From TrEMBL:
InterPro entries: DUF559 (IPR007569), Restrct_endonuc-II-like (IPR011335). Pfam families: DUF559. SUPFAM superfamilies: Restriction endonuclease-like. It comes from Leucobacter muris. Residues 193-266 form the DUF559 domain. It comes from the Bacteria. This is DUF559 domain-containing protein.
Length: 276
């Protein structure tokens, strides 16, 4: 198989030893380096010129991406992108190049194989739990659960008290981190709060008590989707539910207004089933 094809199958960057085991000769590598077909981010590594910059930096520094940086790369719900990348060394004795970013030296529960540039999910979630604020880490963990990438029993076996504490509050049903944040911030109420409940043929974001519904519009919410949601709200109200619709921005940045609206509705008993 051609050198460039092997690199593409490895995400554009891999260790020299991997290519040699696959049948690439040292002569082919020297030729590829000389004509600019490939680059050397660090001794022992080979990359295509257009390789992922984050992976190139990790390889150049002798590190791998982890924690909130890797969570975002894996498609998990992240409240805010980190100001600096989060890295980990392949092993405690690794020689790493200093530079901007956070380096986690904690021993990983899952051993890191040579040549990895992205931490396994279990290591990523352990570091998220031990590094990120409570709401942000709970949202990331619930995102992994919701996508079926792992499970509460599997994560509960990992040696991390902080992760296990998160799992006591976690649910796999939250469809987005903003639902996680909403539920977490009202967790002090002694009223059932359920997410992604089926009502009137559709899921509702949050159901408080028996009939108070809170719908949270995402960052992109317009057109046919918004029209359908408004019609669904009308049907829910016809069936006797109380509906409050808020936005992502209000929940994340103006929480006091959201909380006031919810608590006002609860004070008027709008979360309770109407008597016949």
């Amino acid at each position: 198989m051609a050198l460039t094809e092997l690199l593409r199958r490895s995400g554009g960057i891999t260790r020299t030893s991997v290519l040699l085991r696959a049948g690439v000769t040292r002569g082919e590598l020297r030729s590829a380096f000389s004509n600019g077909q490939v680059r050397r981010p660090r001794k022992g590594w080979v990359a295509l010129p257009g390789a992922d910059p984050e992976l190139m930096t990790a390889a150049r520094r002798g590190l791998l991406l982890t924690c909130v940086s890797q969570a975002a790369r894996a498609g998990l719900w992240v409240l805010a992108a980190p100001r600096h990348p989060h890295y980990a060394p392949p092993n405690p004795h690794s020689h790493v190049v200093t530079g901007p970013g956070v380096v986690h030296w904690r021993a990983p529960p899952v051993p890191r194989a040579p040549g990895q540039l992205e931490d396994p999910l279990e290591n990523t979630l352990v570091l998220v739990a031990e590094c990120q604020p409570y709401e942000a880490s709970l949202a990331i963990v619930e995102s992994a659960l919701n996508q079926g990438l792992t499970s509460i029993p599997a994560l509960d076996l990992l040696p991390s008290p902080r992760l296990r504490a998160l799992l006591k509050k976690a649910t796999p049903f939250a469809d987005s981190g903003v639902e996680t944040i909403f539920r977490s911030r009202l967790g002090w109420l002694r009223i059932p709060i359920r997410v992604q409940t089926h009502l009137s043929g559709h899921r509702v974001d949050v159901l408080i008590g028996e009939r108070l519904i809170v719908q949270v519009d995402g960052k992109q919410h317009s057109g046919a989707q918004r029209d359908g949601d408004i019609l669904h709200d009308a049907e829910l109200r016809r069936q006797g539910y109380e509906v409050i619709r808020v936005t992502y921005s209000l929940v994340v940045h103006r929480w006091e207004l959201v909380q006031e609206a919810v608590l006002s509705a609860i004070a008027r008993g709008l979360h309770l089933r109407r008597s016949a």
